[in-house]
Structures are given as C-alpha cells and as structure tokens.
User: Fold this.
Amino acid sequence: MAKSRPLAEMSRTTSEENRVRAEDQRERAEGCRTTAEGHREVAESGRTEAERLRLVAEGVREAAEEARHATIESVAAAAEALTASLAQMQFLDDARNTLRQLTPKKAGEVQ
Assistant:
C-alpha cells in the first residue's frame, strides 16, 4: 500500500501539470481569437474605406464627365459666336467695297 500513495501522488501531480498546460493553451487560444477579431475589424474597416473611396471616385468621374460636356458646349458656343462675327466682318467688307464702287471718283483720287 505504501507504493500506491506515491503512484497516486504522481498521477495527481501529472494531472495538475496537464491542467496548467490546458489553461495556458486556453489563454493562448483566447489571445488568438482576440487577435483574429482585431484583424477582422481592421479588414472590415479597410473594406468600408475602399467602398467609400469607390463612391467618391464615382462622384469625381461623374463631375469630370459633366465638366467635359460643359467644355464641349462652351467651345461650340464660342465657335458659333466666331462664325457670326466672321459673317458680320465679311458683310461689312462687302458693303465697304460696294460703297467704293458706287461712290463717284474725284479727280486725283486713287482707288
């Protein structure tokens, strides 16, 4: 019977060591879960920021497209105004030439 006590004591000691190891592993596993959750939160934050930037980029693209259309319209209006000015200048030049032809020449004038 004396031998069974040391065996029981060894078994109890081994069980306690195993319990301590299991507790240590549980704490490490909990730390890993906490770290993983932190990484998930960072990844979700990154996804949210990427989506926000995508929406901002889409808004910028739409604004650029509107500006492009406004520029095209502005250039077309300027071309139309220049065309009208050129037509007026041609009309005035034609009128001046017509007046020169219709005006009697005075002696000594060079046309």
